Hints:
The protein is of the alpha+beta class. About 40% of the residues lie in helices and about 20% in strands.
Amino acid sequence: MAKSKFEYVRNFELDDTCLRNCYIVVRLDGRNFHKFSDQHNFTKPNDDRALGLMSRSACSVMEELDDITIAYGQSDEFSFVFKRSTNWFKRRASKLMTHVTSQFSSSFVFYWKEYFGEQPLLYPPSFDGRVVLYPSNRNVRDYLSWRQADCHINNLYNTAFWTLVQKGGLTTTQAEERLNGTLATDKNEILFSEFNINYNNESSVYKKGTTLIWEKVNETTTKQIKRPNEEETEVTVTRTRKKVTSHSCDVIGDQFWDEHPDILESEQ
Ligand code: DGT
Ligand code: MG
Ligand code: MG
Ligand code: MG
Ligand code: MG
């Protein structure tokens, strides 16, 4: 095709190819979800509908986009790890990041009703995205550990805070003052001795967040088979399929990684 005289403008595009051999992590985060959660009456500190919708949207990202081996989410954020050898979109950071955030955002709206029922979505939500490269398996594990530790710290604080307000009758200012300077053990103690709540028994989705991975699962279906000159019979067919599965488990220790050795590639 003949080139127009305008063609030179293409040279203004910058190269944003992600460095080879590195894991590409895209993290997205809900914009102004402090307000969004209030306006949509999210239960405090955790709203199961909202967490379910976040995971459903992340699942759609994994299913629709190539080469994501693990995703981790908590609160209004989700991180997606592309395998280090991916060549999807020639490793262009802006392509990867925008595809993840737009697939996620449209899914969040698309599946809203499945989780929130008749409660209307009041305005279009949006998510920011960023790309971070990690050169080693240790770095990726430490990255996910960092997000999970953040989940734990925030959830313990929020659980103690909203228990003091909802069950203890404190104002939000009083609850904030009460928790100011307290350690994790103090918050556990407040929950246990004053409200008979054992933090360990709280839902693991709240404490650990959500981890999505690809797993082989057996799917059994029944089929009607009709052979010539025979009665119709029902047979069961079992097929192995790769599926995105959801886990609320510890990703900081070794056990999860020992059980799922395919998530990270072996170091060269
Ligand atoms: P940003 O990210 O700078 O645009 O601002 P925010 O407001 O999204 O702040 P961020 O991302 O640091 O904090 C997440 C907010 O979302 C935080 O105010 C609590 C809220 N949120 C997330 N999940 C839940 C939930 O399950 N229940 C409730 N009540 N709030 C939630
Ligand atoms: Mg923020
Ligand atoms: Mg946010
Ligand atoms: Mg956030
Ligand atoms: Mg196009």
